[in-house]
Design brief:
This protein is 78% helix and 0% strand. The protein contains 21 helices and no strands. It is globular and about 60 Å long.
Length: 476
């Protein structure tokens, strides 16, 4: 009988040891061997492994158990500041181009701005989140897989950019037509062509940048969840506004002469003729095939939400001097920070379970508002770190904006206080919403990498437009 008990204990211990070694091998593939190298030592004399050793969510908890808060703060801070300064530049450019003839004559272009800037949340930040998850799962360790993942995702973002650019222009035309009950054919052609070309070119440039950043961060053993999305936003707004201003201005000059009416349709044809090729590449790629067919609702829904933010900007840009300078900053910073949080939560869920199953120690249902930041739920620590970056970052960006426009605009103390409150409120609401939405989507079987970030950044654009207008209203 004693031999039987010993035999059963030995068998159970061997099975558990085998499971621990399997987890260790998987973790090594993901680049985190150090954290589980001591797991085998936690098997006690009875052959029982501590439950916490085998719980995937506790091994990562949004990346937090293996990553001290200060390390995350250091990794996030520099890209965050660079991204913010890029958005300051975007605001400065928008403040200049809003006085251009094409922006004055075709006011619908202003409605396009948040929707097109939101593409970095709809496409590039979603791409960064997908690639970061693939890195943390070890799928980018093979060179052939790197090329397949990069090529498939670039093709996918091109398809999405063309479709969203077209729908954004139609929605802008509709929002402009409703109060006026009239529209101009040439303005419509200009909007559609400018929107599609801007979306396609910006997506190609920023998508290539995101892929390069993720690959470099992998080689440097830096968590791409912390840096890929801020860097995607660092040049995203500035690049998009510059492309939109250049293309719309050039097309407006051409449309003024009757012999140049064929140029916009010709440019549209050149862009649309390659869309089937992008569709073919994305369809035949195992990493993007599902997203090609199921990833449209978040992207289109986010576009609609961002367009309402553009409508608010269109009505306030002439009422409050300086609002154009802050619009890309408050929207972009809120979107960047919530995208980091959503990407980390998604990575933690990917490590711990499969879509449709939420581990017991993760968030179930709608969490309490304070628990998403000050509680002990998954991602609460990273939420506190991200929220703590808001005030110092926005102060730096406000000083930069005031210095760039020192001859034409000065921020009052009342405005600075109102603006900081608005920024803190926006980010706090977004972090809480991310904590609920990522887990809710995962529980429904959806991949948050493809679904959560578009909605969150779009809601951030809408909240940013409302809260920024309120800050200007209160301070004046």
């Amino acid at each position: 009988m004693v031999q039987c008990v010993l035999l059963q204990s030995s068998t159970k211990s061997s099975a558990i040891m085998q499971e621990v070694r399997s987890r260790k091998t998987t973790t090594i593939r993901r680049g985190f061997a150090a954290e589980t190298s001591a797991a085998e030592e936690e098997v006690n004399g009875r052959g029982i492994v501590d439950e916490k050793v085998l719980r995937g969510s506790d091994l990562v908890d949004g990346g937090e158990a293996m990553e001290p808060w200060w390390q995350m703060a250091l990794q996030v801070f520099f890209p965050y500041i660079v991204a913010g300064l890029g958005m300051v530049g975007a605001g400065a450019v928008l403040n200049i181009v809003k006085q251009w003839k094409v922006f004055v004559d075709v006011s619908e272009i202003v409605i396009l701005v948040p929707a097109l800037l939101g593409l970095k949340g709809n496409l590039e930040m979603t791409l960064a989140s997908r690639l970061s998850t693939q890195v943390n799962l070890g799928n980018l360790d093979v060179s052939s897989e790197q090329l397949s993942i990069a090529g498939g995702n670039l093709a996918l973002t091109q398809v999405q950019a063309v479709v969203v650019g077209f729908l954004s222009s139609l929605f802008a035309i509709l929002l402009s037509w409703i109060p006026r009950r009239k529209s101009d054919f040439r303005h419509g052609i200009l909007l559609i062509t400018s929107s599609i070309l801007t979306a396609s070119l910006a997506s190609l440039i920023l998508g290539s940048l995101v892929i390069g950043v993720v690959m470099i961060s992998r080689r440097c053993r830096v968590n791409p969840d912390n840096i890929a999305t801020p860097i995607a936003g660092s040049l995203g707004d500035l690049t998009t506004i510059l492309i939109l201003a250049a293309i719309s201005s050039a097309l407006s000059n051409n449309l003024e002469s009757s012999d140049q009416l064929l140029l916009p349709p010709l440019l549209l044809f050149l862009v649309l003729v390659v869309v089937p090729i992008w569709c073919y590449v994305a369809h035949n790629n195992k990493y993007t095939r599902d997203v090609l067919y199921s990833g449209w609702m978040p992207v289109i829904g986010a576009m609609v939400i961002s367009s309402f933010g553009g409508l608010i900007l269109d009505h306030t840009i002439s009422s409050f001097e300086g609002i154009a300078m802050f619009q890309p900053v408050i929207n972009g910073i809120g979107g960047n920070l919530v995208a980091i949080q959503a990407s980390r939560l998604s990575t933690a869920l990917h490590r711990a379970s499969t879509p449709g199953t939420i581990p017991t120690d993760f968030v179930h249902g709608c969490p309490q508002p304070c628990s998403s930041i000050f509680g002990s739920t998954t991602g609460a620590r990273s939420g506190r770190v991200l929220l703590a970056l808001v005030v110092p970052g926005q102060l730096i960006f406000t000083v930069a904006i005031c210095w760039l426009h020192r001859d034409e605009w000065t921020a009052s103390f009342c405005f600075v206080v109102a603006y900081l409150v608005a920024a803190l409120t926006q980010v706090a609401l977004l972090l809480h919403l991310a904590n609920w939405m990522v887990h809710w989507l995962w529980g429904r079987g959806s991949d948050p990498d493809n679904s959560a970030i578009p909605y969150l950044t779009a809601i951030g654009d809408l909240l940013g437009a409302i809260l920024l207008a309120f800050a200007f209203y209160v301070s004046t």
